[in-house]
Amino acid sequence: MQRLTSTDQLQSLQRRLHDQAGPGCPTLVIPAGTCGRASGAMAVIEAARDTVRERGLTDSIRLRVTGCHGFCQMEPSVLVEPERTFYPQVDAESIVRIISAVAEGKVLDDLLPTDPDTGEPVRCQEALPFFRTQVRTILGRSEHIDPTRVETSLAAGAYSALAKALERGAPSWVLDEVQASGIRGRGGAGFPTGVKWGMLAKQPGPHGKFLVCNADEGDPGAYMDRSVLEGNPHSIIEGMLLGAFATGATEGIMYVRNEYPLAIEHLNLALDQARALGLLGNDILGSGFSFDIAMVKGAGAFVCGEETALIRSIEGKMGEPRQRPPFPIQKGIDGKPTCINNVETWANIPIIIGRGADEFAKVGTSGNAGTKIFSLVGKIRNTGLVEVPMGTPIRAILEEIGGGPADTAPIKAVQTGGPSGGCIPADRFDLQIDYDSLAAAGSIMGSGGMIVLDEHTCMVDLARYFMRFLKDESCGKCFACRKGTQRMFEILDDIASGDGTPEHLDLLEELALVVKDTAMCGLGQTAPNPVLSTLRYFRDEYRAHIDHKQCPAGVCKALITYSIDADACKGCHACVRACPADAIAGEPKEPHRIDPAACIRCGACVTACKFQAITVA
Amino acid sequence: MSQAIAATSETDAGTVLGIVAKHEGAHGALIAALEDVQATYGYLPEAALRLVAERMDTSLVDVYGVATFYRAFTLKPRGRHVISCCLGTACHVRGAAGVVEEFQRQLGVEPGETTEDGEFTLETVNCLGACALGPIVMVDGEYFSKVATTGVSDIIEAARADESQPNEQVA
Fold this sequence. Notes:
Chain A is an alpha/beta fold. Chain A has 24 helices and 19 strands. By secondary structure, chain B is an alpha+beta fold. Chain B has helices spanning 2-6, 13-23, 29-41, 46-55, 60-69, 89-93, 96-107, 152-161, and strands at residues 81-86, 120-125, 137-139, 142-144. Residues 1-8 and 166-171 of chain B have low confidence and may be disordered.
């Protein structure tokens, strides 16, 4: 494809590609993001390609390999267009049957998912409970795009919003629209994006101004950004182009965590493609406006998700945060004005400009416009990425979309906001998901991680898990954070190991409040949140560990004993075979016994036992 | 440190200086250069770090600062196969800690260490972003999902039997 030198050329190319794609043609859409690949999607794709070719169906059945669609645990999955039939957990054999069926215009009922309420097969993706109530403004777009082929992005409308803005010609129009939309930063702090952009626009920038896409996504358990980066990289480039046009930024940087190799690959491809088309570089589409984007990889440091640490990392230094003011907007990379926004924020910008601020603001609630993508993971039946309007109650996400608990144990709490966040207990599940409601409940929205916990999750162990993470990730610059997180971890470890005392709880709380008050950056200031939140809602679990040396959830190894119920045990020896520590003994057909001194509490016996004869208490 | 110094003879000045030149002038050049050095040698040899510091006109202490600050970098040689266990929150609540312990038990090393025979390095990583499928273990760039403690020995044996080019790690 040739370099485009005007918005007219872009639009006619888009039209041509859209028509060529043959919108009505039967297409197998197979998600192959990182989780799709981890599930075996590549083998399915290869089998599909071979089958279509061998049967001479290449002109009648298309194959589109995309990024994540969101129903991750069902992958490898196949979505058949245009009917939108959804086949879950497809393998190399069933794809062959599916292709035959598609060639004959049929649907294979035995391979369809079943509606949990009616027991009937569900044909259309939109009818599935997981998808039914979602508003997939951003995630839905990944279905139409092969992230390695820019033609598919263009056919789906990529860069239309940019063309619209350039045709209007006024950067202030873009700025006004983003401000009117009410969008707040999706990285977690929720600062109004339009206000931030306005500040950057006002900055004098004789030596240049920077825009940064923060693709560090450091919260463990959150992978919303990964799916957009892998599945729709051009949407981020377009968002940044619009941002540069609006604010006068001259250089862009995408800072991507190195743990996302596929995202880095697709972004680099997309950047090259955009440059070749003249969408990045000088005199973009003949407008006179110039902008380019460089890729900088992270190297594994949670703290680099914090603005000032991220800037230092881009400068090639240790990612230590610094004092603010001056804020990055005034003095950022190399001392120049810098505006940093999250991946999901950037992905929303073309939608705001394309649909209009008023349309955008219709979704969500007052002060919380638009949709938010959450990674719904943990002890929930339907795990994956879900996109809902801001203001949706937690219960709706867990029950309607998530399908309720994964096992028989009821859901105890959800953890939001990653290591900077807190937990919301089950009796508060009517809470609406928005920035302010979550903060009032002692948590934060964060980047969108939503970890579901049940009765088999120990809240003390969870607090210890987060504190171990935070003490390792603390940059070490501030005494309060460096020593405070370390001591809080040690106290939690003592409590979980059965060495806790009542005084520990007071000390833990006092430390938590001091660290919160005195740490210099967001990491330290929010590090106590998981502890404070679990103490607020689950103090009884802490007391059980301290006063009774018990772990009610059956998790903390020092406090639990595995034992075999002699009445239920059939003496089948399965546990003996599974035990890596030779801790179980028994005669065949006689009740077996676990030696508590030898037992390493790995749980292999529980998995192996078919008679639920092993209890953990 | 002795292992790093012993590797001096392996470090080719031309290669290292070529890496530095490739990233010259780019944002985050030092970090990108160290990533390439590690991709070439499997770790960051002291000799390479000295060359990088000299060529980039940066103090050695600043280079070591970066090399030891970021989790992706290692100053010690790694094994033929790198096993990375994800310790993200979703993986944790599904029992990832138990999986790591089982790898420790079977390989006889702690996370961050390499087996005596130089075959396996065991590491933990904070989140690979495949959270719906946890616990996740990555071996030489290949993902294993829903790993249970009972599946650990199969993963180790499969890696041991794999003769193809090792060590395509995340960093």
